[in-house]
Amino acid sequence: MKSLEELKAIREKNESKVGVRSESASQTRVVVGMATCGIASGARPVLTALSNAVQEEHLAEKISVTPTGCIGLCQYEPIVEVLEPGKEKVTYVKMTPEKAMEVFRLHLKEGQVVAKYTLGAVQE
């Protein structure tokens, strides 16, 4: 069993880590569905294309590209979600590396949602 002082030190140390996480709240998050259905549909090349583009353009401070598990819309895979601070989430569906590069250029760099690739456009 740890002493009360040791437990307080662990708590303070971990509280400071939580503060670091909240600083990334100003960063745009790009999430690529990488569950089995996403991978089978071609999500890996989409994730690679987006990750490489962010690195090549030196935008890693502003944009994070991360894989996630099941997004729950298997029939629309590969799925890319863009989460910008203070804005509604945009869900892009049936992505390819080429479509992902268009989203990167227009949405992530220029701020224009590419509506033709969104979930809303597919469901209409």
From TrEMBL:
Keyword field: Iron, Iron-sulfur, Metal-binding
Gene3D superfamilies listed in its UniProt record: Glutaredoxin (3.40.30.10)
Taxonomy, superkingdom: Bacteria
Record InterPro entries: Thioredoxin-like_sf
GO molecular function annotations of the record: iron-sulfur cluster binding; metal ion binding
Listed name of the protein: (2Fe-2S) ferredoxin domain-containing protein
